[in-house]
Specification:
Blueprint lengths: L5 H24 L1 E8 L5 E6 L4 H7 L7 E10 L2 E6 L1 H5 L15 E6 L2 E7 L5 E5 L5 H7 L10 E9 L2 E6 L15 E6 L7 E6 L5 E4 L6 H7 L12 E6 L5 E6 L16 E4 L10 E6 L5 E4 L6 H7 L7 E11 L10 E6 L17 E6 L8 E6 L5 E4 L6 H7 L12 E4 L2 E3 L15 E4 L5 E6 L6 E4 L6 H7 L13 E3 L5 E3 L11 E4 L11 H20 L2
Parallel strand pairs: 1-5, 6-10, 11-15, 16-20, 21-25, 26-30
Antiparallel strand pairs: 1-2, 3-4, 3-5, 6-7, 8-9, 8-10, 11-12, 13-14, 13-15, 16-17, 18-19, 18-20, 21-22, 23-24, 23-25, 26-27, 28-29, 28-30
Length: 552
């Protein structure tokens, strides 16, 4: 077969495409460790594929909070804003200007949104949208997928709060591109309903409420019969009928069927019949659940409903729910006028069949406490040698330098070598305090200036604390420990600083206060394992210093 034949060219093209798809598959399988911070539900460090979509990356952190903006998601690399991503453009499959691969150490920052606008009615995707300052109603309708098809006319209204008062504007005759929106605006799109002159509406305590056909023979009894009749809780002595008068004013009629003596009441076109309940509060019989459930809220009460039924309606218990701590609040009597007249009963119930045996009453409130209740969100903890230690507010751009300023600055005994505890682990100390970003929940520890240096390993006194002397050499500290012994390796002496950094010590090396000097043993490589015990001893001394800071 000739190399220039079509079959040979087709074979080479097939192999080339296979290799390209394999390279793309290998590239998509690579993982990058990135930090997701800002207005997301669970900020932290995550592993994502290097070619991930931004929407998938945010979904790993629980998505943006109600205040987060998906229009300007920043990718920060080495302290520089590398890329700004717009998730609306991604949803619309609009080409982005740049889309780099993720790398280890990248920071994905979700800022607070500029504008939140709600849209409801005749649009394809009603909901709450995030807009930028220069976008208009035309942009909003494009993000909503456009208007739905309707044969009737349309009314577009803008609801806006100005100086504490709500204003209403009709914007149907204005070009959509000229309508500027503000934060908190609400847009409604309603059809222009044509009047149905041959209908009546039945609502309230009837078995089949709804719209029914009207003719000249329609009466109240015939309408109730079409709706299946009143329910058992209905109040027939005070049925309300709303109708239009001669001049289109609203008129209300009250009918007492109990005293009518079989006499019927004729209905007019467009009448609205309301059959009230005998118990006025019966229409509002609800139960409430809050706390460690997936869907907390208020639910309609039903007879023989149990605690287990209510928890099932609420989506079940969350993983952080304290299953043995369940609080049930119940009214003293069904006629209790307010929530102040209640009796709270704490039930220590394990998650078993006993929940299905506790029957609820109307207006009961079930609170499922969580194991993490009482922890502060949106804060960091600052400990050690600062003027005002404790918990302080956190924001996405908070640096170590700003956090120390918020804590009143360093105290006179401070030794500026900060340690940062994140998710139970010590992060490497920042080289510069003005550009290292803190994350929500971090603990910043500023140590006190130690007055000693530890010496351990192959020295005569094994482990000793030597008073710190400024500009003192290695020879001074070794002499205070009795000098090295015969098996000491003098060319491989190293130290561990107070913030857990390794330090290779030479004859002229400046030794910071609080350092633990480790003198290892010389010999073959298999004997170097003995220095691990020395390192453990150094870490123990470092932890002793940290305990002093925490108990401060």
């Amino acid at each position: 077969m000739s190399c220039s034949s079509p079959s040979w060219l087709y074979f080479r093209l097939t192999v080339l495409l296979s290799l390209l798809s394999l390279c793309s598959l290998v590239a998509s399988a690579q993982q990058a460790r990135i930090n997701i911070v800002g207005e997301v539900v669970r900020p932290g460090t995550y592993s994502v594929p290097v070619r991930s979509q931004m929407s998938d990356v945010l979904r790993t952190a629980g998505g943006p909070t109600p205040y987060g903006s998906v229009r300007h998601v920043r990718v920060i690399r080495n302290g520089t804003a590398l890329y700004v991503h717009d998730l609306y453009a991604e949803r619309a499959d609009t080409p982005q200007t740049r889309r780099p691969f993720f790398r280890n150490g990248d920071i994905v920052l979700v800022k607070i949104a500029d504008l939140h606008v709600c849209v409801s009615g005749l649009v394809k995707r009603p909901g709450r949208y995030v807009l930028t300052e220069n976008e208009t109603l035309a942009d909003l309708l494009r993000y909503c997928g456009g208007l739905t098809d309707t044969e009737e006319g349309l009314i577009i209204q803008l609801h806006r709060s100005e100086h504490g008062l709500m204003t209403l504007s009709d914007v149907m005759g204005t070009p959509f591109s000229d309508v500027r929106l503000l934060d908190g605006d609400s847009i409604t799109l309603q059809p222009i309903m044509s009047r149905r002159r041959n209908e009546i509406i039945l609502s309230g305590a009837v078995k089949r409420p709804g719209r029914y056909e009207w003719d000249s023979t329609a009466t109240l009894l015939s309408a109730l019969n079409d709706a299946g009749g009143p329910t058992e809780e209905a109040r027939p002595d005070h049925i309300l009928i709303h109708r239009r008068g001669r001049h289109y004013e609203r008129v209300m009629e009250s009918v007492n069927l109990s005293d009518a003596g079989g006499k019927d009441f004729p209905l007019c076109a467009e009448d609205s019949v309301v059959v009230p309940l005998a118990d006025a509060a019966g229409a509002r019989r609800t139960v409430k659940v809050s706390g460690g459930v997936f869907r907390p809220g208020t639910y309609a009460y039903e007879s023989r409903m149990t605690v287990a039924d209510l928890l099932t309606l609420a989506g079940g218990l969350r993983p952080d729910a304290a299953c043995t701590r369940l609080l049930l609040t119940r009214r003293l009597s069904p006629d209790a006028p307010s929530h102040a007249d209640t009796l709270a009963t704490a039930l220590q119930i394990p998650l078993n069949d006993s929940l299905s045996r506790i029957t609820l009453h109307p207006f009961d409130e079930v609170s499922v406490l969580t194991a993490t209740e009482g922890k502060m969100r949106g804060s960091i903890c600052i400990l050690g040698a600062v003027n005002f230690g404790g918990r302080h507010a956190w924001h996405p751009f908070l640096t170590v330098e700003q956090a120390i300023e918020n804590a009143g600055g360093l105290s006179a005994e401070a030794y500026f070598s900060p340690a940062i505890v994140r998710h139970g682990r010590i992060v490497p100390a920042p080289s510069s305090a003005d550009d290292f970003l803190l994350m929500e929940g971090d603990t910043l520890v500023i140590p006190f200036t130690p007055a000693f240096v530890n010496v351990t390993g192959e020295v005569q006194r094994r482990t000793v604390q030597v008073p710190y002397r400024e500009n003192a050499s290695l020879k001074y500290y070794l002499s205070q420990a009795g000098g090295t012994n015969a098996v000491a390796s003098k060319s491989h002496i190293y130290g561990v600083t107070i913030n857990n950094r390794a330090l290779k010590i030479r004859r002229r090396t400046r030794i910071p206060p609080g350092t633990t000097i480790v003198v290892p043993r010389k010999g073959p490589a298999r004997d170097t394992r003995l220095s691990i015990k020395d390192l453990q001893a150094a870490i123990i001394h470092t932890l002793l210093i940290a305990s002093r800071i925490i108990h401060f």
